[in-house]
Amino acid sequence: MFTSIAPRYDLLNHALSFNVDRLWWGRTARSFRHILSRPGARILDLCCGTGDMTFALRREAGKCSPQILGADFAHAMLQRAWAKSAGRSGSSPYWIEADALKLPFPDASFDLVTSAFGFRNLANYDAGLREIGRVLRAAGECGILDFGEPRGAMGAAYRFYFKKVLPRVGAFISGVRGPYAYLPASVERFPEPEQMLSRMKATAFTEASWIPYTFGIAGLYRGKK
Ligand SMILES: C[S@@+](CC[C@H](N)C(=O)[O-])C[C@H]1O[C@@H](n2cnc3c(N)ncnc32)[C@H](O)[C@@H]1O
Q: What is the position in ligand 1's atom list of the atom closest to the CA of 101?
């Protein structure tokens, strides 16, 4: 499914979110400045797609030079990430083809694991959290940025846009119907914040919190191992 939308993924992402996605990636990266500026830090951006979250981490690191890896299991997405990194200054992230549920890294390999709009797609959320916990070092942190469902009047407007408008525009521009109909369904399937926080604490994290972004349309889950 992700391979089929890779050619138009960036265009659709920015258009359908009115470019707010850029603010969300930047805000998430800023939340982890204390790790990005640590000498020798190792960072993994899971489900990196075409790499925009990974690049936001790279930008936030500035002159510091943590090792940043982007991992995804869709080859076509990674090809685009790689092509985008060729045109950028500064040290490029490493791109790795891997399944988030079976990462090819030893235990305790990273200081930070992030995932933007990818975790929600995993077939097994608890297995995904355990795998993130496994590759994190002691006191390592994770940041999972994903969609939520805002409540109240904003929620009604958002649901109309997300369920009626977005799938049609997405299908029209990408030329494939399935993925943009799947998007609202996958957000409905994703646990509510309270449930997600309990799962984080039950699987791998001693501390867990959620910060809503833009009325809760998205939000950042933070966990500390
Ligand atoms: C909606 S895209 C998000 C991409 C990027 N992080 C962003 O913010 O634009 C979700 C990505 O998750 C990847 N993905 C889904 N399940 C995965 C898994 N089990 N292992 C690795 N990547 C996965 C897909 O291939 C896709 O590129």
A: 19
